[in-house]
């Protein structure tokens, strides 16, 4: 069983992020993930001046200072970058990290970011169309030894090489989101990693995980894809605390679903064990405070050690 950490990259300082990275690299953790936001979500006007570190720049820095951790984002917003540019950036990070990078991308949701920086924010339908086309384009680049020509509605390539490409294998693609009609279909067609995002508010239960995998299975059947080719992961918000009121506030303030791992050590271990039994390949934990780096040590010692 593999465990990763989503490390906060807004409302904090680089030096705190660096300290956490060093702890993860030295510990039981298997992966590290950053968000991709230009303003601190959820988008309160009075907080827009707070720090929001650029996610791809961060991951490149971390690739150069680690040797063990697998790296990625949860998840990149497709509307922020041309997908061919994002693919080129991904290949560079994969070279720096010697093959430890996962390219994770979603349709993007944070309208205020687009307004602040002058980016187009299309309708949900168009963003889903763009995401599907972007995933097709990026997969073609990652898996071709020859230059790629691509003629889509939104994106085009003219005999474009990806050189250097992935370090020693095609870079895996995570398609962010679990929308049942579009997103999971896009994953079935072009993705390599499924992620159930607990921040979206759905229940963090084995039953819900199996339900979503069942939808993905139907899409895989329809497109002729073997679902065993797709890695299954979960992003689980967590708060390790002996204070029941703090745990309750964590769930309420963030609109999190039932089964979220907020509570004392035994409660979190029970929730994690339930998910482990589903056969999931990896659990990433989010919400551990980056400006309190020792919390990552405590979580490792009290929770992760139970699954050695």
Can you put this structure into words, describing what you see?
This protein is α/β, with parallel strands linked by helices. It has a single domain (2-307), classed as Alpha-Beta Barrel (TIM Barrel), CATH 3.20.20.30. It has ten helices and twelve strands. The chain has helices at residues 14-26, 55-65, 83-96, 111-117, 124-143, 183-190, 206-223, 244-253, 265-276, 294-302, and strands spanning 2-6, 31-34, 70-73, 76-77, 103-106, 148-151, 156-160, 173-175, 193-197, 231-240, 261-263, 282-286. Helix 8 links the parallel strand 10 and strand 11 (261-263). Helix 2 (55-65) packs parallel to helix 3, helix 3 (83-96) crosses helix 5 and helix 6 packs across helix 7. The longest helix is centred in the middle third of the chain and has 20 residues, at 124-143. The model has no long low-confidence stretch (mean pLDDT 97).
